[in-house]
Design a protein that fits this description.
The complex is a heteropentamer.
Chain A lengths: L8 E6 L17 H7 L4 E4 L4 E4 L2 E6 L5 E6 L13 H14 L4 H7 L5 E5 L2 E5 L6 H5 L8 H6 L8 H4 L9 E7 L3 E6 L14 E6 L3 H10 L4 E2 L5 H9 L3 E16 L9 H9 L3 H8 L4 E3 L21 H10 L8 E6 L3 H16 L4 E6 L1 H7 L9 E6 L6 H9 L16 H12 L3 H17 L3 E14 L2 E2 L16 E2 L1
Parallel strand pairs in A: 1-10, 1-11, 14-15, 14-16
Antiparallel strand pairs in A: 2-3, 4-5, 5-7, 6-7, 8-9, 9-10, 12-16, 12-17, 13-17, 18-19
Helix pairs in contact in A: 2-3, 7-8, 9-11, 14-15, 14-16, 15-16
Chain C lengths: L14 E13 L5 E15 L4 E5 L6 H8 L7 E6 L2 E2 L5 H8 L2 E4 L13 H12 L4 H14 L16 H13 L5 E5 L7 H18 L2 E5 L3 H7 L2 E6 L2 E7 H6 L4 H9 L39 H5 L5 E4 L2 E3 L5
Parallel strand pairs in C: 3-8, 3-9, 6-7, 7-8
Antiparallel strand pairs in C: 1-2, 1-4, 4-5, 9-10, 10-12, 11-12
Chain D lengths: L4 E14 L2 E14 L3 E5 L6 H9 L7 E10 L2 E2 L5 H8 L4 E4 L13 H12 L12 H17 L5 H5 L8 H13 L5 E5 L7 H18 L2 E6 L2 H7 L2 E6 L2 E7 H6 L4 H8 L36 H5 L5 E4 L2 E3 L6 H6 L1
Parallel strand pairs in D: 3-8, 3-9, 6-7, 7-8
Antiparallel strand pairs in D: 1-2, 1-4, 4-5, 9-10, 10-12, 11-12
Helix pairs in contact in D: 3-4, 4-6, 6-7
The structure holds adenosine-5'-triphosphate (ATP) (2 copies) and magnesium ion (2 copies).
The site of one adenosine-5'-triphosphate has 13 residues of chain C, from strand 2 and helix 1.
């Protein structure tokens, strides 16, 4: 009997391993199921388009200067061991994130310092920011609250319980850990006392397993070994699952964009005509429609098309004549092969790079394709000297605000992070982005972002290819899946198996 | 042991000049350069290489291989957690290679230049020429995707029986869980075959050559001249002599299998140390890379010690000198 | 007073060997030294110009080691070797190689001393290339001359060693050494493995070459009959020692050392009664790694007395030109 | 074949196939061994001594050797007509045993001497009933006792302990003694000893020869003893047959062989032995290639007395004295005088 | 020359070795004549996403890959890469390994010890593991694959040459040359080297096969020549995402690897039989 046979039990085949259960040391999609199901944050993104909802926090206030956030906690939230979730746990969790310096910490550190979080009473927490910013509110989703007493009991050598929490859970999430093996995955059972309460139908047990091979995920889902599967799949694979009659493919707009970063500071790419030529030389349809089988949406600007703040009617198309014309206008001479870096192990990124090379070849630009593992890429793009000419990867939704994309990618103050690998600098754009961040009125912000995006696009700062569509294969008997681009539908609280 | 130390030193140096920055990885995806620099200092990456190496050896002597930069757990734990998977796979492959390869080699030698010998030769030449990852794909295509007889990959779907030895098949037997045993075997089948093929081919060749060699020797001629039955000569006397060189080969085979494991485990997503090493390399995870090499080197050397023991079991001359 | 053999000797000697020793380390499985094989232990003798000195003894007694140590293939552990009045024992490298020209060692199977991949011509030219400044044509002339002397047709020059018979290979091996015009040649078991008929041919060749080139031979052999026929004097070795040394006739007629006696007794005498019906030396020589105390031969000696276990008998002059190492000789 | 003969080889021809062609290694060879005698088979390297010995044992290499005719009459039975299974089971190791040349290589280094001795007893002991498969305890014990007794007779020190030792723990001489014991254990009628002392030193060789001769004579066993060493042959043999290039040349009692050789070849061979009393005499010429051997008497290209008939016709057997047979058209002077 | 004629004539007699030689000859011919064998010079690099993943037949003999490249053309051009890697890597290994083995084997003092220890270290760990580490350190490219393979393969030659040299050193003819007063370097160059040539040749042939397999494995793991280079291992790796539907994707490159490696192995085996000094010595006997 397959493990999925048991009623009320849900098995998910994840593309990557759950090598740690610590919610504070990672901030990725691969291990999001741990954070969404076993832990709760102060806030949580829900639905699509995503809305920031109060979660462990009941409400929050912002000081008039925009520098102090005060959260009121719910009173009914309990950890898995029955102790109530209190303000000191929140403070501990914040301090822990900052102390460990991993996962979302790098973002937190830009806005808050250790010791800036205070428990005003058992259910009130105050955060004093370094600088007034809205980014903090979006980040509060990552303040997964851990049971401070329990963790402190298991601390070793002042490690903030790191060793223990990598294998154990001290959370309040909707599911409670039953079994964990870093090489296999985890099993968790329903936590009946979860503060959100439960609907009429629910899952008794969830199992998230690492199944790295896409074919196994496909076949296993068809056969019923799994109820759902993650990871990128090709049209063929999705079709095969659909044709089996057992699987529904959920389709959602997502907010993960793929683009080539062009090194705006290095000749010949510092010439806007050259950059435009490159933009005209990429076969967008060939890639999006043929190679990816139309599973993605053309996204010609640095803001996901399904988010506010994305300008319409701008961008480039595949046109070799225009590319040649731009090259003719260019002042810079292309006297060396350009280096196109892709992420080794990610075949889409590799295919995009080779297709780019193919296009460049056709307009007479020589290039060589190089694969680098992600850590190498992160390392290289920190400095303008080492950053590659062209590099292709994705920018995912860490939070659903244009700042996540255009703000962090093209503001010159952001140089040194992997999102700003273009080393783009334009005073006007900097100004617009700063204005957008100061404002709290969405319509106004949208206007600034749109304008900035137009300029960036016109400057051909990068080559924007697509915005991901999310396809979730789920067995027909699975119901109640709720999707948010941040979390990829791995929050199982609302789901059930018929 | 000096070999292992030298090995660690070489791999340490090689892995530490990888031009990517693990500090960046540790610091997190959106870390600022200052944060990364701090991490680098904390991990000692700013020190000269020989200082880092010395520190590593110092910790190693205290039984500390450092933490994996990627999984954040101690490399020792990571490796020991994954070792059983590799051991199970390698042992299975070794068993298949030996149990099939040795008799095949003997028979081929005895039936020299017959169709059987030629058939065996085709198998061995082919077995040594086939790329394991390609063979793996062919096997997956045929047995998993087409026929559906064996799982595509992984070690077991779901959680294993309570760990006693860490070898799933054995643990399942101990737990009396035949269902899991069957599944574990099914998962084991394709990677084992893939991994065993080159080793099997090597063993067949060596056994065949060894038996032919021994058949030429004076004592075989003597026993034949004394009218000892041929079957007794072959299966009692010749085989043991041929095994002396074959056993050495089995020891070397372990190296082949370990090397194969890196590729085969990657293809079959087998949660062993080969797979771990591959991922570690891709994430520039120094401690994990060096740790793996150290383990592989040590295991390899240990196995060769075992081989020496086996040698003295077969060859009493060694035991008495 | 007995004459101390170490300091006396023939003033005209071509080669003077004193206290020569060569030990080989015995190593255990870990490569650590566990002891040593005294393959050659305190050996002294002289070789006169133009003579043939026979060296006989059982397998493993150190005959080859003696030859190879003299020829510089092994470095002596101790002792002195005066060749043409020059000390050569401590020489090494290039300095030693110069001596090689005049003092040559012929392996038991000279055919095997030819590189199997080289033509005979190339092998014969090699020593001349190394040791002489002769032009190619001059070398060729010299080579052809020598080849004639050893009785091989020049058309053999383009053959490979495996294309020659055993006897022919030995001729080539000798020719190769003779191109250098040595004074002293150590012949190590030069007839072992040969059929009697071939052996006769080879021995004859040695004789004629000796006359022709005025050679001095050290003739190592375990075949007493051959030694008796070829040698002027004989040294009998037992476990790394010379136990008896003297003129061939004298030794064969009147062996003084019990080992020599046993050895001679064991040789079949064709046409007479079976020697094995008479006296037979019992036991086997001990391993050279584990020598008995005192006299090395006492474990097999028919005359062994208690004093033999205590003192190792030194070589003594027992008659005119004869030395024996036995308490009772 | 006379009743007094245990073995009579008649016109045996053996050839070996090789890359270069078919080598005529034995050319219609005749050889007779009487009951209880030690028959020496001498000749130079490559003349076919081992081949003849192996042909008698029926262990010629199957893939290369071709038997071109003749008979090997053993105790009235033609061994060439017996199938390989039966030969192995009934004759080899039981009625005809073997002492090899190389006592070092003929022991399996991985098994104790006892294992290897008892393996022979298990299959070849006189106590073994026809077709017995197992090895009953009682017989094993009796066989073992017998083996120990024999080891004592071949002067192996502490024979019981010796059985559990490994071959390499024995010296060469001791190993050859063990081989002799193993050849004697089945109480055979004939022992074939192929150069059993070549690998040994003179003093050891003398010990072995004496021992072997004593034991076989005491038991009345016949021996075919091959050697290329005339001295050895002289020591051990009652009669000698000399082989040249695959043809037997002369057979004579040991004294007559050395004192009054009748064949040109034998005489020249003995002449070439080292002798301090006279100059070295060589035979001259070389041993012929067996792939394309000389017609007639194979010695004729090297024979001073050769005439046309020698070149065309192989001489018949000719008795020059009692038990002294020669195959030569022009027997040696000395022999004729004596005859 | 004589030796070459001998080898060729013997090869001709050994059917399987002859087959191996033919395969390798075919590989060389394909590699050299690649431009003549494909429809147009860029066929191996052309990408037409519109015709991606077409099964074999018609226009595309072996089908097309995920970028719409012609697998046939890519396999043909892949032969060039494979041959280059194998020849250069094994060549470099020879250049390092043989002299080191000769020196260590002949002199055998501390220098030899040290050299052998170093090569032992390389041999203690599976080649592919070290090769992966090195290839990754240097970044994926053909040159680096070659470098990684050379750096890890030379100890095999060292070991072999070392062992052969050591046993040759005890051969009578080497001892004899020493006794003749021939200087050591001359002995190494004129006697030892030619006599270790046979095992080196055999090892080279087998090493080619082995190197091709390892290089393909590196390519498979994404550490080989970067895309769009038509590298066989990489092509197989690409195919995995498209199985089982695009069953043809891995077929041609896999078969190509298989055949070529088999060719080298067969040839190596054949050469071993022909050149093995033991066998030869036995054939020629003592005299
Ligand atoms: N290179 C070596 N290393 C170690 N031991 C050696 C070496 N050469 C010789 N011996 C030992 O030294 C002793 C004398 O050997 P040597 O070869 O001189 O004897 P031999 O008298 O020539 O014997 P044979 O008649 O067998 O040739 C033997 O015990 C031998 O094992
Ligand atoms: N298996 C074989 N294949 C081919 N030729 C063989 C084989 N065995 C022996 N010969 C040849 O047969 C001839 C006789 O060999 P045999 O061994 O009988 O000689 P032998 O008299 O015993 O010589 P030795 O004294 O060297 O032992 C030789 O020329 C030998 O080369
Ligand atoms: Mg010697
Ligand atoms: Mg023989």
């Amino acid at each position: 009997p397959s493990p999925a046979d048991a009623k009320g039990r849900f098995v998910f085949a994840n593309e990557s391993e759950y090598d740690t259960l610590d919610p504070h040391t990672v901030w990725d999609v691969g291990r999001v199921a741990v954070r969404l199901n076993l832990y709760d944050g102060l806030m949580r993104w829900q639905n699509n388009p995503p809305v920031l909802e109060h979660w462990l926090a009941e409400s929050h206030t912002l000081s008039p200067d925009g520098g102090t956030y005060t959260f009121k906690l719910r009173k009914n939230a309990k950890f898995h061991d029955g102790t109530p979730v209190t303000a000191k746990d929140v403070v501990y969790s914040m301090e822990r994130i900052l102390a460990l310096g991993k996962g979302a910490a790098s973002q937190f550190k830009k806005v808050i310092e250790p010791g800036a979080a205070k428990a005003l009473d058992a259910h009130t927490v105050e955060f004093k920011l370094k600088v007034p910013t809205q980014v903090f509110l979006w980040l509060t989703t990552e303040i997964h609250v851990v049971n401070s007493a329990l963790v402190q009991k298991n601390e070793k050598d002042k490690d903030w319980g790191q060793a223990w929490l990598s294998k154990n859970v001290a959370g309040s999430g909707a599911f409670k850990l039953k079994q964990f093996d870093p090489a296999i995955g985890f099993v968790a059972e329903r936590f009946p006392a979860h503060f959100k309460g439960w609907g009429a139908k629910y899952l008794d047990e969830i199992e998230f397993r690492a199944v790295k091979e896409v074919n196994t995920r496909v076949l296993g889902t068809i056969k019923g070994d799994f109820h759902g599967a993650g990871g990128y799949m090709t049209t063929d694979q999705l079709n095969k699952m659909k044709e089996s009659g057992n699987v529904n493919i959920l389709e959602e707009e997502s907010m993960r964009i793929m683009l080539f970063f062009l090194h705006n500071q290095r000749a010949p790419l510092n010439d806007v005509n050259v950059r435009r030529a490159i933009n005209y030389a990429f076969d967008y349809d060939g890639f999006n429609k043929n190679i990816l089988g139309g599973l993605v949406q053309r996204n010609p600007t640095p803001v996901p098309g399904n988010l506010w703040g994305a300008p319409k009617d701008v961008g480039y198309s595949y046109d070799l004549d225009k590319a040649k014309a731009e090259l003719a206008k260019a002042a810079a001479k292309i006297d060396r092969p350009l280096e196109i870096v892709f992420l080794s192990g990610f075949s889409q990124s590799e295919q995009a790079a080779t297709l780019m090379q193919n296009g460049l070849q056709k307009v007479g630009i020589q290039s060589k394709v190089v694969g680098n593992p992600w850590p190498t890429v992160v390392d290289k793009v920190q400095k303008p000297d080492t950053a590659p000419d062209i590099v292709v990867y994705w920018i995912s939704a860490y939070y659903a605000d244009p700042h996540n994309w255009i703000g962090e990618m093209y503001h010159s103050g952001q140089w040194g992070t992997f999102k700003a690998a273009s080393f783009y600098k334009n005073a006007k754009v900097d100004e617009l982005l700063d204005k957008a961040m100061k404002s709290t009125v969405q319509a106004e912000r949208a206007k600034h972002y749109e304008e900035a995006a137009r300029i960036v696009t016109n400057d051909a700062a990068g080559v924007w290819i697509y915005n991901t569509k999310w396809y979730g294969p789920y067995r027909k008997e699975v119901k109640g899946i709720s999707f948010s681009p941040i979390g990829s539908a791995q929050e199982m609280r609302t789901a059930w198996v018929e | 042991m000096p070999t292992v130390a030298g090995l660690v030193a070489i791999v340490f140096v090689v892995s530490h000049i990888i031009p990517s920055d693990p500090a960046a990885l540790v610091a997190g995806e959106a870390a600022t350069p200052e944060q990364i620099a701090a991490v680098r200092k904390k991990l000692g990456f700013d020190q000269p290489m020989h200082v880092q190496l010395g520190a590593y050896f110092w910790k190693l002597m205290q039984g500390d291989m450092g933490n994996s930069l990627f999984t954040t757990r101690p490399v020792w734990d990571d490796l020991s957690g994954r070792l059983p998977a590799t051991i199970e796979l390698t042992l299975a492959a070794m068993a298949v290679s030996t149990l099939v390869g040795v008799p095949l080699g003997v028979v081929a030698a005895l039936r020299r230049n017959t169709w059987l010998d030629h058939a065996v030769r085709v198998i061995t030449v082919g077995g040594l020429a086939v790329a394991s990852f390609w063979l793996a794909i062919l096997l997956q295509l045929l047995f998993s995707m087409e026929l559906g007889w064996a799982p595509l990959n992984a070690r077991l779907q779901g959680f294993p029986p309570p760990a006693v030895t860490g070898l799933l098949t054995i643990d399942a037997l101990i737990a009396g869980n035949l269902g899991v045993l069957g599944k574990a075997l099914a998962h084991l089948a394709l990677p084992t075959i893939t991994l065993a093929v080159p080793g099997l081919a090597t063993l067949v060749r060596f056994t065949r050559a060894g038996v032919l060699d021994v058949l030429q020797s004076g004592f075989v001629q003597y026993q034949r001249a004394m009218g000892i039955p041929w079957r007794v000569i072959v299966w009692k006397y010749v085989l043991r002599n041929a095994l002396v060189s074959t056993v050495t080969q089995i020891g070397l085979l372990f190296g082949i299998l370990l090397a194969g494991a890196v590729v085969v485990e990657t293809v079959f997503d087998w949660p062993g140390i080969g797979n771990y090493a591959f991922n570690a390399i891709f994430s520039s995870d120094y401690n994990a890379i060096v740790g793996f090499t150290l383990w592989a080197g040590t295991v390899f050397i240990l196995v060769n010690l075992l081989v020496d023991l086996a040698h003295s079991a077969i060859d009493p001359r060694e035991a008495r000198s | 007073m007995p004459l101390d053999e170490r300091h006396a000797g023939d003033a005209a000697a071509l080669l003077r060997v004193r206290g020569l020793a060569r030990h080989f380390p015995i190593r255990n499985a870990l490569g650590l030294r566990r002891g040593s094989v005294k393959a050659l232990d305190d050996v002294s003798f002289d070789v006169r110009p133009g003579e043939t000195l026979g060296v006989v003894g059982e397998s493993g007694c150190g005959k080859s080691t003696l030859g190879k140590t003299l020829a510089g293939i092994h470095r002596p552990t101790a002792g002195s070797v005066l060749f043409e009045d020059a000390e050569i024992a401590p020489l090494q490298g290039a300095a030693r190689r110069v001596v090689a020209r005049r003092l040559q060692y012929v392996h038991q199977d000279p055919g095997a001393s030819l590189d199997p991949r080289w033509t005979i011509r190339r092998s014969l030219h090699e020593p001349l290339i190394v040791h002489s400044g002769l032009s190619e044509a001059e070398r060729e002339q010299r080579v052809r001359g020598i080849l004639r002397e050893v009785g091989l047709p020049p058309d053999r020059l383009d053959s490979y060693p495996h294309e020659l018979s055993g006897g022919q290979q030995r001729r080539v091996g000798l020719a190769r050494i003779l191109t250098l015009q040595p004074r002293l040649v150590v012949l190590d078991e030069p007839t072992s493995g040969l059929d009697v008929s071939v052996q006769a041919t080879v021995l004859k060749l040695f004789r004629s070459l000796q006359r022709q080139f005025n050679l001095t031979y050290i003739f190592i052999s375990h075949d007493l009959a051959v030694v008796r026929m070829m040698c002027d004097r004989v040294a009998v070795m037992y476990l790394g020692r010379i136990v008896e040394l003297g003129p061939t006739d004298a030794i064969f007629k009147d062996p003084r050392h019990p080992y020599t006696r046993s050895l001679l007794a064991a040789i079949p005498r064709i046409g007479g009664p079976r020697v094995t019906d008479g006296f037979v030396l019992e036991g086997e020589p001990p391993s050279p790694g584990k020598l008995p105390s005192g006299c090395r031969f006492r474990t097999r000696c028919p005359n062994a007395a208690p004093q033999c276990a205590e003192a190792d008998p030194p070589g003594r002059t027992v008659a005119e030109g004869r030395v024996a190492a036995c308490h009772f000789a | 074949m006379a009743a007094a003969d245990i073995l009579a080889v008649r016109d045996l021809a053996v050839a070996f196939a090789s890359d270069a062609g078919l080598a005529q290694v034995l050319d219609r060879v005749n050889l007779t061994i009487r009951r209880g005698e030690v028959m020496g088979l001498v000749g130079e390297s490559g003349c076919g001594k081992s081949t003849l010995a192996r042909a008698v044992l029926g262990v010629l290499p199957e893939n290369a050797a071709r038997i071109g005719g003749g008979r090997v009459m053993f105790d009235g039975e033609d061994l060439l007509r017996i199938g390989p299974e039966e030969m192995s089971d009934r004759v080899r190791g039981r009625r005809i045993t073997f002492i090899p040349q190389d006592p070092y290589g003929s022991f399996n280094p991985l098994f104790s001497v006892g294992d290897q001795v008892m393996e022979i007893m298990r299959w070849k002991s006189k106590r073994r009933p026809e077709g017995e498969r197992g090895y009953p305890r009682a017989r094993r014990a009796a066989d073992r006792a017998e083996a120990i007794e024999l080891l004592r007779q071949v002067q192996i020190p502490e024979p019981e302990a010796a059985l559990s030792k490994l071959p390499h723990e024995f010296s060469g001489g001791q190993r050859q003694r063990l081989m002799i014991a193993m050849a004697l254990l089945p109480q055979p009628d004939l022992i074939i000893a192929d150069e059993p002392t070549t690998a040994l030193d003179v003093t050891i060789q003398a010990q072995i020869l004496r021992l072997l001769r004593k034991l076989v004579k005491g038991r009345g066993i016949s021996v075919l003893f091959t050697t290329h060493d005339m001295g050895t042959a002289h020591e051990i043999c009652d009669r000698i047959t000399v082989l040249y290039a695959g043809q037997e040349m002369e057979t004579a009692p040991v004294d007559a062989f050395f004192v009054r050789p009748a064949h040109q070849y034998t005489a020249r061979l003995l002449d070439s032995l080292p002798n301090p009393d006279r100059e070295i005499r060589e035979i001259g010429g070389e041993i012929p290639r067996l792939i394309d051997p000389p017609q007639g008497c194979r010695f004729h290209p090297r024979c001073a007395a050769a005439t046309d008939i020698c070149r065309s016709q192989r001489p018949d057997e000719r008795a020059v004295a009692a038990g002294h047979v020669v195959r030569c058209h022009h027997p040696h002077e000395g022999a004729r005088h004596a005859a | 020359m004589k030796a070459l004629v001998f080898i060729v004539s013997r090869l001709y007699r050994d059917r399987s070795a002859f087959l191996g030689a033919l395969i390798i000859l075919a590989l060389v011919v394909v590699a050299l004549a690649a431009p003549l064998l494909v429809s147009h010079p860029d066929a191996a690099w052309a990408m037409n996403p519109q015709v991606r993943l077409r099964p074999p037949g018609g226009e595309f003999l072996f089908g097309t890959d995920r970028m719409g490249g012609d697998i046939y053309a890519r396999v043909i051009y892949g032969a060039r890469i494979t041959l280059t890697i194998a020849v250069v890597a094994v060549g470099v290994s020879l250049l390092i390994g043989v002299p080191v083995g000769l020196v260590a084997g002949f002199y055998g003092h501390w220098l030899g010890e040290v050299l052998m220890r170093v090569s032992d270290i390389f041999l203690a760990v599976p080649q592919i593991v070290l090769a992966i580490a090195i290839a990754l350190t240097l970044g994926p490219s053909i040159e680096n694959v070659i470098l990684a393979l050379s750096l890890t393969y030379w100890p095999w030659f060292t070991r072999l040459v070392y062992a052969e040299t050591q046993s040759l050193k005890n051969e009578v003819f080497i001892e004899a040359a020493m006794a003749l007063g021939v200087p050591p370097w001359r002995i190494i160059v004129t006697h030892i080297l030619p006599n270790v040539a046979s095992p080196i040749i055999v090892r080279t042939s087998i090493g080619m096969g082995f190197t091709i397999l390892t290089a393909a494995a590196l390519g498979f793991l994404g550490l080989g020549a970067p895309p769009p280079a038509p590298e066989w291992g990489r092509m197989i790796s690409e195919s995995r995402e498209h199985l089982p539907d695009a069953w043809w994707y891995a077929l041609a490159p896999g078969l190509a690897i298989f055949l070529v490696v088999m060719g080298f192995n067969l040839l190596g085996d054949g050469l071993r039989d022909i050149l093995d000094p033991r066998i030869r010595r036995a054939q020629h006997g003592r005299g």
